[in-house]
Amino acid sequence: MARMLADKKRTLWILEGKPEDPNAPTAAEINGGENASCSIGNAGFSIGASTPNVENDGSLCEGASAETPTSKTYAASMNIYRFYEPGTKQIKVEEDFVFQAFKEFGSEVWVALRDGGKEHTEEAEEGDEVSIYKLIAGGMGRASDTAGWQKREAHVTVADGFEDKWVGGTPPVAGGGGGG
What we know:
Blueprint: E1 10-14, H1 27-31, E2 34-35, E3 46-56, E4 67-81, H2 97-102, E5 108-115, E6 129-142, E7 151-166
Antiparallel strand pairs: 1-2, 1-5, 3-4, 4-7, 5-6, 6-7
């Protein structure tokens, strides 16, 4: 089996809204969003399932610890780069779209994340595996590290998640020849 180096090959899109079927998003729904991959810092970026909530729900004969997962939880962390007009040094809103999407407390932002071997410049297509998340903005913190690029820490809560779903709803066809 072949493995592939991660090599920072992740693509994040800010979607126009919730896909009609988040368990089988279409390429058009994902590509209709804006590619945010170059607007979010790689260091400190994470999004996905977290430790589930559990309940100690064992019978009397099972002893003190019989934890059973009861609900899924998610976590997210990201630093968003800011974009300025070189001449005026004012915010360049059209390039600063990720910050603009998250800056209002309570705003809902739907995103799609693709991990894997494709470059961030490649559009989503049928058979890609993506995860869809509904994020709720909780305010923009100030970065403690002021070296490097201007960036802000986005405080976000993952309100819903649809992880590891196939674009178009169907896994890709296995390549190669058959057995024999």
